[in-house]
C-alpha cells in the first residue's frame, strides 16, 4: 500500500513539475492574470473610491477581497486552456501508455493552478500594500484567509477542468470563466449589498462570492466572522465535490 502511495505522489510531482515549467516559460499568463485586477483596483480606489460609501476609511481595504477573487477567476481560465491543449494533442493518451497513475495527469494541472494563482494573489496583495492597504489581522487570521482562497481556487479549478476536457475549441475552453469573473460585481465585493435594488440584493446576498468576500474582509479587519466563514466553506466544498465528480467522469470517458 505504501509503495502505491509513493508511486502516486512521485508521479504527481512529475506532472506538477511539467505543468509548472509551462507556466514559468510563459510568464505572460501570470502577468495577464495580475495586471487586469490591479488595474481595476487602481481604477476603483483612485477614481470611483471617493464616491462609494462603504463605511471604511480606506476603500482599498474594503475592495481587496473581491479583487483577489476576480484574479483567481481569471487565472483558472488558463487551466482550462492548458487541459484543452493536452487533450487536443493527445498527450493524455501518451502519458497513459506509460506506467504512471492515470489521475496524476489531471492532478498536475490542478496543483499548478493552485501554485500559479497563489503567486498572482501575493503580487496583488503587495500592490495593495503600496496603495495603503493595512490589516490588523494576526497570523491565524491570515492563514484562514489563505485557506479560503486556496479552497476557492480548488473549487474553480475543477470547474475549469470540466471546461478544458469537454470544450470543442480554445475559445470555448476559456469562455466559461467570464460569468464567474462577473459574479463579484453583483456581490458585496465593491459596494454593500444594502445599497442594491431588492431583486439584485437578493441574488447578491445568496451567491457564493458574497459570503467568501465577507469572511475574508472580516478576517483581514480583525472583526467577528460569524457564520459567513461556514457559509463560504460550504459553498467551496459543494462546488468542489460536484465539479470533481463531473470532471473525473468526463476525464475517464475521454481517455
TrEMBL record:
One of its GO terms (molecular function) is ABC-type transporter activity. It holds the Pfam family ABC2_membrane. Its main location: membrane. It comes from the Bacteria. The chain crosses the membrane at residues 27-48, 60-84, 105-133, 139-161, 173-191, 229-251. It is found in: Cell membrane; Membrane. Residues 28-254 form the ABC transmembrane type-2 domain. It is a multi-pass membrane protein. The keyword Transport applies. Keywords: Cell membrane, Membrane, Transmembrane, Transmembrane helix, Transport. GO terms for cellular component: ATP-binding cassette (ABC) transporter complex. Belongs to the ABC-2 integral membrane protein family. PANTHER family: NODULATION PROTEIN J (PTHR43229). This is Transport permease protein. The lineage of its organism: Bacteria, Bacillati, Chloroflexota, Anaerolineae, Anaerolineales.
Amino acid at each position: 500500500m505504501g509503495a502505491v502511495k509513493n508511486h502516486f505522489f512521485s508521479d504527481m510531482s512529475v506532472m506538477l513539475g511539467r505543468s509548472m515549467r509551462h507556466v514559468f516559460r510563459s510568464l505572460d499568463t501570470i502577468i495577464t492574470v495580475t495586471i487586469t485586477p490591479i488595474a481595476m483596483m487602481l481604477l476603483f480606489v483612485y477614481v470611483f473610491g471617493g464616491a462609494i460609501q462603504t463605511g471604511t476609511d480606506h476603500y482599498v481595504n474594503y475592495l481587496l477581497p473581491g479583487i483577489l477573487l476576480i484574479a483567481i477567476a481569471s487565472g483558472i481560465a488558463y487551466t482550462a486552456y492548458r487541459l484543452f491543449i493536452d487533450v487536443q494533442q493527445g498527450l493524455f493518451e501518451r502519458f497513459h501508455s506509460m506506467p504512471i497513475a492515470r489521475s496524476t495527469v489531471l492532478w498536475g494541472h490542478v496543483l499548478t493552478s493552485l501554485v500559479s494563482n497563489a503567486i498572482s494573489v501575493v503580487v496583488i496583495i503587495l500592490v495593495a500594500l503600496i496603495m495603503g492597504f493595512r490589516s490588523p489581522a494576526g497570523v491565524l487570521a491570515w492563514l484562514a484567509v489563505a485557506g479560503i482562497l486556496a479552497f476557492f481556487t480548488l473549487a474553480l479549478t475543477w470547474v475549469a477542468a470540466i471546461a478544458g476536457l469537454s470544450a470543442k475549441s480554445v475559445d470555448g475552453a476559456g469562455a466559461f470563466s467570464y460569468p464567474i469573473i462577473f459574479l463579484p460585481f453583483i456581490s458585496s465585493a465593491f459596494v454593500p449589498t444594502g445599497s442594491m435594488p431588492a431583486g439584485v440584493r437578493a441574488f447578491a446576498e445568496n451567491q457564493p462570492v458574497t459570503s467568501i468576500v465577507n469572511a475574508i474582509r472580516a478576517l483581514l479587519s480583525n472583526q467577528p466572522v460569524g457564520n459567513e466563514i461556514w457559509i463560504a466553506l460550504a459553498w467551496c466544498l459543494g462546488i468542489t465535490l460536484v465539479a470533481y465528480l463531473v470532471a473525473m467522469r468526463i476525464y475517464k470517458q475521454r481517455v
